[in-house]
C-alpha cells in the first residue's frame, strides 16, 4: 500500500513540475524564414508593445498598399520613403481568436535609418514582403482556417490607403 501511495505522489510531483514551464515558443530572437531581410517574432510582449505604441515614432513610416494570400503564403506590398534602409519585423502574439472563422493579427513594423523627414509619394520605394504562414504559425490546418489581419505599426494614415492602413485577408 505504501509503495502505491509513493508512486502516485511521485507521478503527481513529476506531472506538476513538467507542466509549469514557460512558453518555449515565445522568443525575443527572430524566427528565420527564407533569405529576405525580414524578422519574424512570436512574442506577446512585443505584440502588446506594437499595439500600445503604434505611431511613426515606434515604427518608421510606411504604407501597406496591397495584400494577397495564396494558400499558405501572404504577400504584403509596402511602400516607404526613398532613402530609408532597414528591416521589417512581423510580430505575432501567438494567439488565434477562436471565432468562426478563426482570426489572428500580425503587426508589421519597419525599423529603418536614413529616412527623410517627409513621406513624399513621388519618392517611394515599393517592396513585397513574403510571409510563409505555416513556417511562422506552425500548424497547416490552423493556417488554412484562419483569417489574418495585418496591422501597420507606424499607423501612417492617409498616404496610399484609407483608414488606418490595416488590411485583412482570408484564404478564399
Brief write-up:
The chain is α/β, with parallel strands linked by helices. Helices cover 22% and strands 36% of the residues. It has a single domain, classed as Immunoglobulin-like (Sandwich).
Which descriptors would you attach to this protein?
172 residues; alpha/beta; Immunoglobulin-like; 5-stranded mixed beta sheet; 3-stranded antiparallel beta sheet; 4 helices; 8 strands; elongated
Structural notes for this entry:
With 172 residues, the chain is of the alpha/beta class. It has a single domain (24-169), classed as Immunoglobulin-like. Helix content is 22%, strand content 36%. It is built from four helices and eight strands; from the N terminus they run αβαβββββααββ. It has helices at 2-19, 44-53, 133-137, 140-144; strands spanning 38-42, 62-70, 73-81, 85-92, 102-113, 124-132, 146-152, 167-169. The protein has a five-stranded mixed beta sheet with strand order 1-4-5-7-8. A three-stranded antiparallel beta sheet has the order 2-3-6. A hairpin with a 2-residue loop joins strand 2 and strand 3 (73-81). It is elongated. The model is unreliable at 18-24 and 156-166 (pLDDT under 50).
- How would a textbook summarize the main sheet? 5 strands, mixed
Give the overall silhouette: elongated
How helical, in percent, are the residues?
A: 10-25%
With helices defined by DSSP (H or I, 4 residues minimum), what is the helix count?
Answer: 4
Strand content: 35-45%
Query: What value does the Rg take, in angstroms?
Result: 20 Å
**CA distance, first residue to last residue:** 61 Å
Would you tell me the structural class of the helices and strands? alpha/beta
Q: Count the beta strands.
A: 8
The CATH architecture comes to Sandwich
Number of domains: 1
Amino acid at each position: 500500500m505504501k509503495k502505491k501511495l509513493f508512486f502516485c505522489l511521485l507521478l503527481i510531483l513529476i506531472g506538476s513540475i513538467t507542466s509549469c514551464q514557460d512558453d518555449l515558443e515565445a522568443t525575443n530572437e527572430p524566427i528565420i524564414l527564407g533569405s529576405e531581410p525580414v524578422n519574424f517574432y512570436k512574442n506577446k510582449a512585443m505584440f502588446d508593445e506594437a499595439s500600445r505604441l503604434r505611431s511613426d515614432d515606434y515604427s518608421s513610416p510606411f504604407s501597406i498598399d496591397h495584400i494577397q494570400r495564396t494558400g499558405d503564403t501572404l504577400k504584403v506590398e509596402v511602400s516607404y520613403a526613398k532613402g530609408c534602409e532597414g528591416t521589417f519585423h512581423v510580430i505575432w502574439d501567438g494567439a488565434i481568436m477562436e471565432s468562426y472563422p478563426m482570426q489572428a493579427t500580425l503587426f508589421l513594423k519597419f525599423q529603418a535609418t536614413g529616412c527623410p523627414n517627409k513621406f513624399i509619394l513621388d519618392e517611394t520605394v515599393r517592396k513585397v514582403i513574403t510571409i510563409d504562414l505555416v513556417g511562422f504559425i506552425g500548424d497547416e490546418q490552423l493556417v488554412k482556417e484562419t483569417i489574418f489581419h495585418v496591422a501597420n505599426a507606424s499607423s501612417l494614415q492617409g498616404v496610399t490607403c484609407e483608414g488606418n492602413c490595416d488590411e485583412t485577408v482570408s484564404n478564399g
